[in-house]
Amino acid sequence: MTYSRKGMSRRTLIKTGLAGVLATGVSPMIFTRGAWAQEFCNNPTGDTVTIGLNLPLSGAYAEEGADEQKAYQLAVQHLNGEGDGGLINVLTPSALKGNGVLGKKVAFVTSDSQTKADVARAGATRMIERDGAIMITGGSSSAEAVAVQGLCQEMGVIFMAGLTHSNDTTGKDKKRYGFRHFFNAYQSGIALGPVLGQEYGADRRAYHLTADYTWGWTQEESIKAATEALGWETVQAVRTPLGAADFSQYLTPVLNSGADVLILNHYGNDMVNSLTQAVQFGLRDRQANGKTFEIVTPLISELMAKGAGENVKGIFGTSNWHWNLQDPGTVAFTKSFGAAYGSPPSQAAHTAYVQTLLYADAVERAGTFYPPEVIKALEGFEFDGMGNGATLYRADDHQCMKSVLVVRGNESPTSQFDVLNVVREVPREEVDYDPTIFGGELGPAEPAPMC
Amino acid sequence: MNTALISRNDLLLFLGFTIAVLAMPIWLQPFGAAYPDLMQRFAIYGIFALGFNILFGLTGYLSFGHAAFFGVGSYAAVWSFKLLTMDAVPALVFAVVIAGLFALVIGYVSLRRSGIYFSILTLAFAQMSYNLAYSVLTPITNGETGLQLTLADPRHLDRMMGVTGGSPTLFGQPLFGYAGFYFCAGLLIVAFFIAQRITGSPFGMMLKAIKSNQTRMHYTGFNTRPYALAAFVISGMYAGLAGAMLAITDPLAGAERMQWTASGEVVLMTILGGVGTLVGPVLGAWIIKYFENIFSAFNEGILHRTFAFLPDGVEDVVVTVTSKFVGEGWHLTLGLVFVLIVVFLPGGIMEGVRRLFNWARRPASVGRASPRTQPAE
Amino acid sequence: MFEVILLQFVNGLDKGGAYALIALGLTLVFGTLGVVNFAHGALFMLGAFCAVTFQKLITLETVTVDPTQLSPWGTPVEVREPLVQAWLGDFGAVLVNYSVPFSLLLAIPVMLIVGIVMERGLIKHFYKRPHAEQILVTFGLAIVLQEIVKAIFGANPIPQPVPADLRGAADIGAMIGLTPGIITYPIWRLVYFLFSAVVIAAVFAFLRFTTFGMVVRAGMADRETVGLLGINIDRRFTIMFGLAAVVAGMAGVMYTPLLPPNYHLGMDFLVLSFVVVVVGGMGSLPGAVAAGFLLGILQSFASMTQVKALVPGIDQIIIYLVAVVVLLVRPRGLMGRRGVMEA
Amino acid sequence: MTDNVVLHVADVHKNFAGLHALSDIDLSVEEGQTHAIIGPNGAGKSTLLNVIVGRLAPSRGAVIFDGMVLTGRKPYEINQIGIARVFQTPEIFPDLTVLHNVMIPALSKRDGPFRLNMMRTLDSETAIRQEAEDILADVGLHERRTTHAGALSRGDKRRMELAMCLIQKPRLLLLDEPTAGMSRHDTNTTIELLKKIKSRGMTKVIIEHDMHVVFSLADRISVLAGGRIIAEGLPDAVRGDPRVREAYLGGAH
């Protein structure tokens, strides 16, 4: 039962049932080499171009994954000229025409990454090897992002990272083929520091609970540096196991430690749980050193805030983006997403959407899908209108330099989505940093001979 | 049956298996699974399950911590790449030896108990390995991000030989794509052969006897502990081999491959395929990996295209219903498959195959007891 | 230092009680039916979602769409009126406030039905089958249950409120005459502890002092003989499974304010439950309680900075380390009987 | 007492939580003899057997076999010394074929307690296989050699277990009620079988309830009651001993 995929019409494919299902998602892997086409991985030759979405559809971050998927679908529609066009209308400068990318209709394939590095890599490999994906995007953790971007570097396929907040992604593990729009732990620290100083004063004693793995450590380090610069004292930094569920044994020592601020360097469900439990320990009703005890969650998203419910009220944190910003980009995107799905987008959805558009735009500007050219087009690209103000895709580390939001849990939400308030938009200049401080090497841009 | 090397039935099974494995790129085509990465995984997890079956299927000890050896194998292989050479052979050897030693220690302690107590001991050791690999052992494991190759790796042997290049090779031959698959397929076939020999050897019979009645073994003059330990170490080495192969085809070792869910996965593979059979665990591994990689990728777009021939309203209904079971709902299908298989085919898929086989041949041959009662001479 | 240790001890007791309660249903099923139930975590999770459902039901609102106003994401603004308060007035408000404890009223019958259906439909066919098959079928069932919950409730955790009067921490130090403000502990955790104690005691008394319990215990020892006496042991085993499901479900309901439940919750507690049950001794009720306290207290102390400084990462592995040590020193766990689950 | 005593149970006591299961047991079994141990239920017969094979450690005293102290050795070591045991409820390998059930003890005899011979095939063990088939022919199970042992009748299981012991050519064979629960016909077949192997010069210790079996096979008889040996001697002497009648046979005979 062997057959060449090339010779089959769509009709026949459908008739072959299961086989058809699988094969339709697949673009030809046997290249017809035209004189015009450079030779590289998955050079699209038909009238469609396929992008690969690596999403956590199962596991603890399935909600983020579902939201990202919605955003990607929306981005693909907009690129193909369907719907209201979304941010295509506000991106400046823009080479996007709303007729696909380089005239080719955009299609996508998906893979369930389960928020596991191994699985994410397997999924990315499948989408590259079998489904002919020209670009891989998505993800909900830094481990995933670092793993997949390493793979993409080897394969010569561009990776547009989704949710990843660790300094490593564009720091010591940065790759020429990997690009991150999301902000990072270091920027969280710089952005949050002044606001904390303003709200809670310069004389504070902080107690850190930190997720015991690389992301947690970088976050703790960044926040420590930022708060100590304010004059705060770090009483204690305690590492907690990933997925501990019950954090009470780490919270009891906080009570009589002499600290008056608790900083939770947790993410996702860990953060939801540790925050909920910390509030129940009465920490926020407590007085310490003559001040009201405070809790800070340096990285927070609206999904986490929803999970923590009431407990998040009045808590400070940072976000990459939030739907109730008032710039034209945000308004357009929120409207477009809301019209399609009936709810405002999360920051995961936003970064996913923007990454897709930025990639497509870079291809248009490069005039080719050839990755080294696309990389050149992305590196050092200055743009505006995507909801984060004027933004630079920094060439040195492929980190987007843009404003960062300091947010605070909403005391009186008007709807189930209205859980966070933007307290301050920290301008890009303030969260700028020297890309060399984290080391790492981007590696070569020439595509690997494989794939 | 006068050849001492291998019996006729075993030979046929082995040849059949070999052909099936080597022909994967052909027969997996209609299932959409005929791409190197997935076929490599089929081979790798096939080996993992084969080895697990030597412990669980033959000896009857249900380990819930085998992923630890798999993970240790991966880490060892990546370290071999980093420190020595990008060649696959030292990585494999190194991984198998380290995993074997690790299994020796854990097996020595865990085998002091049996039944569920043994299972929990192995689970505990594996979870400790996982938790430590994720956090405290980060200098060795690179924690959350996983151990990766970097340009700055010393690679002493390669330096000495003047070899450059950043991806795994076999005697200079790069191992991507189909080369990688045939490399894995070759190892799977060798692993299958060894498993088959073990099953058919006096040693294998002792393992089965331990599963059947340990008390009788003691009163028959056997010290069962070293037998069980040998089985444990062998299956640990299989797991280490599989882990190393995963690191060779994809040079990254992450802590989550040691988590209890990964250990549970190999248990499920084995039971799904058929405990104690040779082919069953491999089949089980293939099915679970197929679900994880292919079934999970059916999104609504693909479904709409598939059912495009239906009238619009019907199409929407069909797509809505189907999409609950594929794509992000693939776990649901997997769960249902487990329940159905174990309810209707307690011996796993292999029992289904056997039943089909018996059903097909029953009308033809009446006296089917005869072939095995023939004297061996 | 004294107060730190005392507080950690209180925390250990609290964790221990919770562990014992969470594992109770598992050890009941082990002890009476001899079934390795990998769906136990899913039952715990289902219980938690009974609380979610109850809360959603009593906070049902009439939604009137105001088409003149648009939300920022472009949909018409919805004006919501809570229904229960409209119907029941003040009692409605009490209901909303105490939604978690009240949802026990929903959880008990629901979990009983779930348990009975599970046992009659599936588990009873597996009493004589190998443990491996029990594991596969219950694991498959657990996946199915959690995927159904995910399809209904989504994957994000859903917070459940602590009743307003029980929020915050109680100063238990001051109650026993220590300096106020030193030994404080969340009220809801204390409630959970008391709840655990009551449920465990009730189950224990039920098995020890009722005819039903006696028959079940006799059935555990020798099923056939009890059957020969004309007692329908099967029916009682069904009820036992239902009871175990109810206990798991109640543990889940009351845990929701501490841990906003998501569909994955069950798997997170599955391994822990098994460790508690095995350390305690398979099927032993007092064993599970003892193991719960042992693990809780040791985990609590292992998480102290001072201890972690001595043994890095000890808090990551303490539970498993205790399991290994206990099983090597006491082959059948703390209070296990000989020959149970050793085949 | 003659010089060719092969098994000597010397002054063995066994207490279970203060309960005297065995006291002052002194027993000598001569090479080649069949020694029966009889006694009422709860007399301590099985406890004694368990002490001999190493399943239970005596509270005091020792078991000496051919000059070697057995006490403190593990069951498998005791088997390797040359002591095989038939259990009251057959301990066999129900999932394996009858032939394999019998080959396994033969391999134990040849290879010792542990050997990692995984690169040979079972089919190449022709000598062992032949030996097993011969023994199976002896016990009348040759036709059933490919059936799974679990499917055998109780009587056949017992005979197979006997074959599993005989193939090791043990120097001492311990039989725990070898005919318990058997029909009269099966009992007689088993007696014939045991008589047949008597000529092979194997020493046997039999625990038995059935007097018909005991008096058909035993060379010497020890009578156990209340954990003590109350009489010992040749069958006829024991039969006539009034203490035995009182303790064991009661008034019935």
UniProtKB/TrEMBL annotation, chain A:
<dbReference type="InterPro" id="IPR051010">
    <property type="entry name" value="BCAA_transport"/>
</dbReference>
<dbReference type="InterPro" id="IPR028082">
    <property type="entry name" value="Peripla_BP_I"/>
</dbReference>
<keyword id="KW-0029">Amino-acid transport</keyword>
<dbReference type="GO" id="GO:0006865">
    <property type="term" value="P:amino acid transport"/>
</dbReference>
<keyword id="KW-0813">Transport</keyword>
<comment type="similarity">
    <text>Belongs to the leucine-binding protein family.</text>
</comment>
<protein>
    <submittedName>
        <fullName>Branched-chain amino acid ABC transporter substrate-binding protein</fullName>
    </submittedName>
</protein>
<keyword id="KW-0732">Signal</keyword>
<dbReference type="InterPro" id="IPR028081">
    <property type="entry name" value="Leu-bd"/>
</dbReference>
<feature type="domain" description="Leucine-binding protein">
    <location>
        <begin position="48"/>
        <end position="410"/>
    </location>
</feature>
<dbReference type="Pfam" id="PF13458">
    <property type="entry name" value="Peripla_BP_6"/>
</dbReference>
<dbReference type="InterPro" id="IPR006311">
    <property type="entry name" value="TAT_signal"/>
</dbReference>
Automatic annotation (TrEMBL), chain B:
<dbReference type="InterPro" id="IPR001851">
    <property type="entry name" value="ABC_transp_permease"/>
</dbReference>
<keyword id="KW-1133">Transmembrane helix</keyword>
<dbReference type="Pfam" id="PF02653">
    <property type="entry name" value="BPD_transp_2"/>
</dbReference>
<feature type="transmembrane region" description="Helical">
    <location>
        <begin position="175"/>
        <end position="195"/>
    </location>
</feature>
<keyword id="KW-0812">Transmembrane</keyword>
<feature type="transmembrane region" description="Helical">
    <location>
        <begin position="227"/>
        <end position="248"/>
    </location>
</feature>
<feature type="transmembrane region" description="Helical">
    <location>
        <begin position="116"/>
        <end position="137"/>
    </location>
</feature>
<feature type="transmembrane region" description="Helical">
    <location>
        <begin position="12"/>
        <end position="35"/>
    </location>
</feature>
<feature type="transmembrane region" description="Helical">
    <location>
        <begin position="89"/>
        <end position="109"/>
    </location>
</feature>
<keyword id="KW-0472">Membrane</keyword>
<dbReference type="GO" id="GO:0005886">
    <property type="term" value="C:plasma membrane"/>
</dbReference>
<feature type="transmembrane region" description="Helical">
    <location>
        <begin position="42"/>
        <end position="69"/>
    </location>
</feature>
UniProtKB/TrEMBL annotation, chain C:
<dbReference type="GO" id="GO:0005886">
    <property type="term" value="C:plasma membrane"/>
</dbReference>
<feature type="transmembrane region" description="Helical">
    <location>
        <begin position="135"/>
        <end position="153"/>
    </location>
</feature>
<feature type="transmembrane region" description="Helical">
    <location>
        <begin position="190"/>
        <end position="216"/>
    </location>
</feature>
<dbReference type="GO" id="GO:0006865">
    <property type="term" value="P:amino acid transport"/>
</dbReference>
<keyword id="KW-0813">Transport</keyword>
<feature type="transmembrane region" description="Helical">
    <location>
        <begin position="237"/>
        <end position="258"/>
    </location>
</feature>
<feature type="transmembrane region" description="Helical">
    <location>
        <begin position="309"/>
        <end position="329"/>
    </location>
</feature>
<feature type="transmembrane region" description="Helical">
    <location>
        <begin position="270"/>
        <end position="297"/>
    </location>
</feature>
<keyword id="KW-0029">Amino-acid transport</keyword>
<keyword id="KW-0812">Transmembrane</keyword>
<feature type="transmembrane region" description="Helical">
    <location>
        <begin position="102"/>
        <end position="123"/>
    </location>
</feature>
<protein>
    <submittedName>
        <fullName>ABC transporter permease</fullName>
    </submittedName>
</protein>
Automatic annotation (TrEMBL), chain D:
<keyword id="KW-0067">ATP-binding</keyword>
<keyword id="KW-0813">Transport</keyword>
<protein>
    <submittedName>
        <fullName>Branched-chain amino acid ABC transporter substrate-binding protein</fullName>
    </submittedName>
</protein>
<dbReference type="Pfam" id="PF12399">
    <property type="entry name" value="BCA_ABC_TP_C"/>
</dbReference>
<keyword id="KW-0547">Nucleotide-binding</keyword>
<dbReference type="GO" id="GO:0005524">
    <property type="term" value="F:ATP binding"/>
</dbReference>
<dbReference type="InterPro" id="IPR032823">
    <property type="entry name" value="BCA_ABC_TP_C"/>
</dbReference>
<dbReference type="InterPro" id="IPR027417">
    <property type="entry name" value="P-loop_NTPase"/>
</dbReference>
<dbReference type="InterPro" id="IPR003593">
    <property type="entry name" value="AAA+_ATPase"/>
</dbReference>
<dbReference type="GO" id="GO:0005886">
    <property type="term" value="C:plasma membrane"/>
</dbReference>
<dbReference type="InterPro" id="IPR003439">
    <property type="entry name" value="ABC_transporter-like_ATP-bd"/>
</dbReference>
<dbReference type="GO" id="GO:0016887">
    <property type="term" value="F:ATP hydrolysis activity"/>
</dbReference>
